Records
---
Amino acid sequence: MQVPVRLLSALRPSVAPALLVAIASSTVVFVSTPFLLAGVAEQRDVSIGTVGWISTTQLLGFVVASFLGGRYLTPIRAVFIGGALLGCAANLLSAIAPTLLALSGARLLSGLSLGLAAWFGWQAAFGDAEKTGDVAVIGPLVGVITAPAVSALIQSIGIDWLFVVLAAVTATPLLFAHKVPRTVPRTERQGRRDRHAPTRAARVILIALTFITLGGSSVFIFAAAIGTELNGLDPFTVSILFSCNSLVAIPAARWRGNRGPAGFWYFCTALMAILLASVRNQWLFGFGLVAWGFVFFMATPAVFGLLASRSAYPAERAGDAQAVMALGRVFGPLLGGALISHGSSVALGFCAAGIMGTASLALLYVDRRTLPVIGARLA
C-alpha cells in the first residue's frame, strides 16, 4: 500500500488523503476478485460460473451501502472507522469460511465495506471535474501493482492467506481515521434529510449506467478465466495484462481536457467486450483487455460530469450513481456465469456488447439534448 500512497502524494490530489486511501484499499479488493474466482473454483472444485456468486453477493452489499450511505449517513469519523473494521472482519471471515455459502455471506459484508468507502470518496468529489479525476485515478494506480501481486500471492500462499492479506489492506484506512472530521455542520446534516428526486435526464443516465455496468461486468469479472482457460495464456501473463489495463487508465482518468461524449467511450468499451469474450486470439484478447482500461476511464469521469450537469442537486446523485453501477455489477456476473457455464462465451461477448451499446446510445442522446430539469421534488 505504500507505493499508491507515495504516488498520491506526488500527484497532489485535491481530495483528502484519508478518502483516497479508503478508495485505494477497496480497489485492491475489487481488482483481486477476478483472480479470486478462478482460485476459489479450483480450491473448492466447483465451476467458475458457480463461484460467480461470490462476486454477486459482494456487489449486492456494495449496492446496499451506496444506497443507504447517500440517504441516511453522514461522512464522519465513526462511519469511516466502522467501514474499515467491517472490511477487515469480512476478509478474515472469508479466510476461515467452511462452505461456499459462508464465503458468499462474508463477501456480502465485504461489499458493505466497499460501498461505504466508495460513497465516502465520491460524495466529496461529485460535481467537481478536478476532484472527480483525482478519485477516478485511484483505481488504475492501485491496479497497476495489485493484479500481478494477487496472482503471485495466490500461487505462493493460497486463497485463504490472500484473504488475510486483504484484511490487512482494508484496515489501512484506520491509520488515517484521525484526519476525518468527527461531525459535519448542522446545515449539511439538514441538507441530507431534504432529499430530492433525480431529473428526467438524470434518470436516463442512471438507467444507462446500470446496463453499462451490467454488460461490462458480465465479461470483465471472468476476464482472467477467459484468458487462461479459453485463450491458453498463463496466469502471470494475464496479470500483466491487467496491470497494463490499469496503467493506460491513469492518463485517461487524469485527463484535464475535453473528453468528448461519455456514450462514445462506453460504445468503444462494448467493442472491447467482444474482443475479450468472443474472439479466440491471444493478441486480440490482450489488446481488448488493455484498451478497456483506457476507454472505460475516459468514459466514467465524463458520465459523472454529464450526470452532474443534468441534475438539479448534483451532490445527491453521487450515491445514486455508485448504487446503480453496483446494481449492474450484481447481475452482470450472473449473466456471465450462466453463459460461461454453458460454453457460450462467444454469445456472452455479443450479448454484453449489445447491452452496453444500447445504453451508450441513450447517453449520446442525453448528451446532445437538454431534457427539462423537472422532478426536483423531495424524495
---
Amino acid sequence: MADGTKKKSHFGYFPARLLWAIEPIVQHHRNTEMVRMLDGNVFLAPSQSGGALIGAVHGHAMAVFHAPDAYCSGPMTLDIPDAAFAAAEPPAPVCFNYCGSHYHAEVPEWMQPGTCFVHDAGIFIQPKMRHPQWAGEDNEFQPCLFQRTSSVGTHTIGADFRLKEGSPIDWRKALALAVSDTTAPAGDVLAFSPQLVNLFSRIEDMCWDESPEDRPRTFHRATGNGGKPGAIVLTIEGRPDFVGLYMPMKMTEPQSVSWSFLHEEKANG
C-alpha cells in the first residue's frame, strides 16, 4: 500500500455441510429483510474452546454451530452465493436392490463436499478427497466442487461472494440474553410460526441416521422474564455443538379445538 502499511488478510475454513444446513435461514432473511444486513447474515468467528463458530442470523431466528475442525482469522461476515449452498449439499446415498430389500451405499468421497474455504479473494469448496485420476498430479492441482472470486465494485446478492470483517450483528448478546432468561413454567401455551421452526429441519436431518429410533429429540425451551416472553431456545439431543433461537409470536387467547373433531357423526339413512 502507498502508506507502507500491510493490508490485513482474512481467511477461514469450516465443514461445507454446515453451509448447506443454514441455507434456509439465509434465504428466509433475503426474502423478508432485504434492507438489513446487506453484507450477508452468515457469520464466522473464532471460538475460545478451539475451532470456530459458524451460523446464520435473522431478525426472528438464529442457528449457530461450534466446529472444532474449523478456523478463522477473526470475526467475519459472509454473503454466500446460492450456487455455493447447492454445492455444499451432501449427496444422497445410492440405493441398490436385492431380493426385495433396499441397500444404501455412500457415494465416493471425491463426490462429497468436504471443506469450505473463505478468503478475501473468494470462496472454494473442496471435496473430501481428490479424485483418484489426479493422484499423480502435483499437490498444487486441487480441482474443487465450487469456486467464486469475491465481487469487486458491483455485487449481486445470491450470485456473488463477499467477505467483510466483523459480525453482522451482536448475535452473542442475543444468545446470552435468551439462555439467561427464566425458563417459562411447564404447561404454558406457546404461539410460534411453523415457518420459523421449519428453518431448522435440515439441521435436525443432519443429526439423524436411517433408523427411526435413532432420530434425536429436539427440545424447544420457552424463556421469559417478568411475564414478558423471550426467545425460544432450540437444542438437539446429543449435539452440544449446536444451538438455535427463534422468536415467539405475540400471545393472545389460545384457539380451542373445534367440537366437530371430537364428536362422531352418525351416518345418514
